[in-house]
Amino acid sequence: MTQTLHVRIESADRSDLEERLEAIDAGEDVEPSEPTLSIENLETFGRVFRSTNLKLLEAIVEHEPGSIRELARLVDRNPPEVLENVNELADYGLLELEEDGRAKRPVVWYDEIDADIPLTTGSGQGRKANA
């Protein structure tokens, strides 16, 4: 079964989260929401989802490496560089690092990313072409 992470370029809106938490506290049934990551702008999106990071995510999903060193071998890169990229991905919640003895094992729970990239500003008004 495909697990999809939805990514949007927008500032994180926490109002829905607060309402959901209040409903849970009140004992109400709350429908699970789709896993969504909000990235603040297109520049950050480009940095986080650059090709080197996407290759790391693909290798983790396909091969389930047991350590950062093993992941580095899979993508033919130096472990310190891979660790830097993995930490960035972990900071954004795109992967988790599980302790496995002395090693840290990168884990990705999804196998597909769905990105919503708006081509207009937040006002919904795009630039008009000169005629």
TrEMBL record:
It holds the Pfam family HVO_A0114. InterPro entries: WH-like_DNA-bd_sf, WH_DNA-bd_sf. Gene3D superfamilies: Winged helix-like DNA-binding domain superfamily/Winged helix DNA-binding domain (1.10.10.10). It comes from the Archaea. This is Transcriptional regulator. It comes from Halorubrum ruber.
